[in-house]
Design a protein that fits this description.
- The protein has a two-stranded antiparallel sheet.
- The chain is extended.
- It is mainly α.
- The protein contains 4 helices and 2 strands.
- The longest helix is centred in the last third of the chain and has 20 residues.
- Strand 1 and strand 2 form a beta hairpin.
């Protein structure tokens, strides 16, 4: 039997789930709720059925919603299949099947640092004028 929460019941339900989950977000394993100083918890639910799933940290809840919306817009079938394919894709490419060929727009940490330093030098030079 489905029971629809009233708005006043959301906070207590969220706190109950956070406590049952040991104050840990099931997606990122980060602390949330009272266990964390900055990460608030959100009451996550299935947007198709409305059924509450778990409490997630605010960041993961937002990410899950964005992923769900993007997959829904694809209109190519099941979200689970796409996500499982993505995980398999990442795992397959962790082995670097194409060797060490690097994309031309990629910047190494050293290149990023050099660019930041050049920008800072230019800003200081402009300020001296």
């Amino acid at each position: 039997m489905r029971v629809k929460l009233k708005h006043a019941q959301v906070a207590p339900a969220r706190e109950t789930l956070v406590k049952q989950q040991g104050g840990v977000c099931p997606l990122c394993n980060g602390l949330m709720g009272k266990a964390a100083s900055k990460k608030n918890a959100a009451l996550d639910h299935d947007h198709t059925t409305g059924i509450i799933r778990d409490a997630l940290c605010i960041n993961c809840n937002g990410l899950e919603g964005k992923i769900w919306n993007l997959l829904r817009r694809m209109k190519k079938g099941g979200a689970r299949e796409v996500l499982l394919n993505l995980v398999e894709y990442y795992e397959r490419h962790d082995k670097r099947p194409h060797g060490e060929v690097i994309h031309p727009t990629h910047k190494t940490e050293a290149e990023k640092r050099t660019a930041r330093n050049a920008k800072a030098r230019a800003k200081r030079a402009k300020a001296k004028k």
